[in-house]
Write a structure and sequence with these properties.
Blueprint: E1 2-4, E2 16-31, E3 40-58, E4 65-67, H1 71-84, E5 91-97, H2 107-122, H3 129-135, H4 144-150, E6 154-157, E7 169-173, E8 180-185, H5 194-203, H6 209-228, H7 232-254, H8 261-272, E9 278-280, E10 287-291, H9 294-307, E11 312-316, E12 324-328
Parallel strand pairs: 4-5
Antiparallel strand pairs: 1-12, 2-3, 2-12, 3-5, 3-6, 6-7, 8-10, 8-11, 9-10
Helix pairs in contact: 1-2, 6-7
Length: 335
Amino acid sequence: MSKTSVRTADTSSIDQVVVEAPARLHLGFLDLNGGLGRRFGSLGVAIDGLSTRLVATSIPGPDDEISGPEAARIAVMLPDLRRRLPGLPPVRVTLQAVIPAHSGLGSGTQLGLALTCALTRLAGQPLDLLEAARGLERGARSGIGIGAFLSGGVILDGGKGADDDPPPVIGRVDFPTSWRIILLMDGRREGLSGAAERQAFKNLPPFPAETAGDLCRHAVMAFLPGIARADLTLAGPAIGHIQRRVGDHFAPAQGGRFTSPDVAAALAGLEALGIAGVGQSSWGPTGFALVDSPERAEALAGQLRFQWPALEIVIVQGRNEGARIQVGTMPAMRP
């Protein structure tokens, strides 16, 4: 099977598509005030090590076949996609790996985009990623998941306007290859999603314009330059500052600055050791810490596993490419 770009418009006949879409960390909203006409504005980063991987294969039919983890979510999405893709043959969708759901890692967006990408190719049509996101009702507040699927890296989006378009990606830089990200995952808790998430946004207090300005300044003048120059002494404190201010704003909805008390305590311990770039991805409960070397990450991860055995501690790298897509023709069956 040959690799192809997510942006390809090649519509030659194919029988099988494999899509592997990366998890992402949502590092914080920058402007929840919206006084300039656009609201939210997000920072995020695609990560290696956690991904959704699915295989979609055309079959004789007559019915679609779905297997693997998150098969129920695929079954909900498939009828709408079939209505929008009239040339789609009967398909077998096999989920080989999935991003943990409701953990703050973008599982729903990556699953939906991976499925849409695969089925669009099987239907012989070019992929419009923004239209796909609209159809899946993704990108309602953040463009980070779409940016992670498209190109990976560290992503800045320009917030949500009055139209239905997802927030545009307005900046992207490579994550430093020598750095590592420690993930602190609490499988006993889930972040908000769906109706509960929508209600939480409605109940949040007003967000001061001055705070939005402060966060934008730290993002554009400290965090992103620190990433571009691989300077963690610049990027780390900046993202820590953004996380504290945003986390405190969301505290009434999630029970504190961070969703998981254990993750919160573990992150406080890392800060006491001088690790400034810590925080929570999206609604959590997954926390993260930016570290400037694999050796430092391994040492800290060992301490965390000893001190917090109920947490899953995972070391990942930033991912500077988007979804990996393979297309091909299945070999003919031998008699």
